[in-house]
Design brief:
Function: Has a dual role in the assembly of mitochondrial ATPase.
Oligomer: single chain
Distance between the termini: 102 Å
Low-confidence stretches: 1-13
Shape: elongated
Mean pLDDT: 84
CATH topology of the largest domain: Zincin-like
GO molecular function: metal ion binding; metalloendopeptidase activity
Radius of gyration: 28 Å
EC number: 3.4.24.-
Number of strands: 3
Biased composition (Low complexity): 1-15
Strand content: 5-15%
CATH class of the largest domain: Alpha Beta
Helix content: 55-70%
Strand order of the largest sheet: 1-3-2
Organism: Tulasnella calospora MUT 4182
Structural class: mainly alpha
Largest sheet: 3 strands, mixed
């Protein structure tokens, strides 16, 4: 009487093992292609780029929120502005400061209705964000303390002068990075230039640099001399 073995034969397992190896290799190959972009179809390239863009935006948002929280807690200039905003009747919290993607022409913004915008993809360092945050906080301070009429070009120009003057936005290292190497009246020239550029974006200017410069010149002396709430230029 012949006996029947229950052990699987070698011939029946080899194809299964080979199939598993091929599937593992295929997964590895696809993974490498996704990382490197080599061997992908046009549709795969589009999906890969979209995925990378989403991941990059998420990473920049996380970085922006982390830096924002640190600056709100540890920056002397930000803490100073928080205190004076509160004294002026504005209790600014992290909920009023929004990290969002922007176009690359700016680093931040202020809206009386929406609060402060930090352009998460526009910062090359935490100190850059600090200067931008203080800049926008000066706008908020002006809005609360001096009841700025943002439709008025002269009002807008005055706040832009003060924000550029007091925020650190025009310190020498920042100007060098922008490609300006002036040693005589560097700070003054920067404040004037950046105020004009900002006022140009006012709806009533529509990019008219002559009108923007006229508005800045009309309020220049009084607004540049006004360093409130700082005792001197930051």
């Amino acid at each position: 009487m012949s006996s029947t073995s229950n052990a699987p034969s070698t011939s029946s397992t080899a194809p299964d093992a080979q199939d598993k190896d091929l599937k593992a290799f295929d997964r590895w190959r696809k993974s490498v292609s996704w990382i490197t972009g080599v061997g992908l179809t046009p549709d795969d390239h589009a999906r890969r780029k979209a995925s990378q863009d989403v991941e990059a935006e998420e990473a920049m948002w996380v970085r922006c929120e982390k830096w924002k929280a640190d600056l709100m807690k540890n920056s002397p200039a930000v803490s100073f502005m928080l205190k004076h905003l509160q004294q002026a009747g504005c209790n600014l919290t992290t909920d009023h400061i929004h990290c969002q993607p922007c176009n690359m022409t700016r680093a931040g913004g202020f809206s009386p209705e929406k609060g402060i915008l930090l352009c998460q993809d526009g910062f090359w360092s935490k100190s850059h964000m600090e200067d931008t945050l203080v800049h926008e906080m000066v706008h908020m301070y002006d809005h609360v303390k001096f009841k700025v009429d943002w439709k008025d070009l002269r009002h807008h120009a005055c706040s832009e002068i003060r924000a550029a003057n007091l925020s650190g936005d025009c310190k020498w290292s920042r100007e060098i990075r922008r490609g300006f190497y002036t040693f005589s009246k560097q700070h003054q020239d920067c404040v004037r230039r950046r105020a004009i550029l900002s006022v140009q974006q006012h709806p009533d200017c529509a990019g008219d640099s002559v009108r923007a410069e006229k508005a800045v010149n009309e309020v220049w002396e009084s607004c540049k001399a006004d360093t409130r709430p700082f005792d001197e230029i930051y």
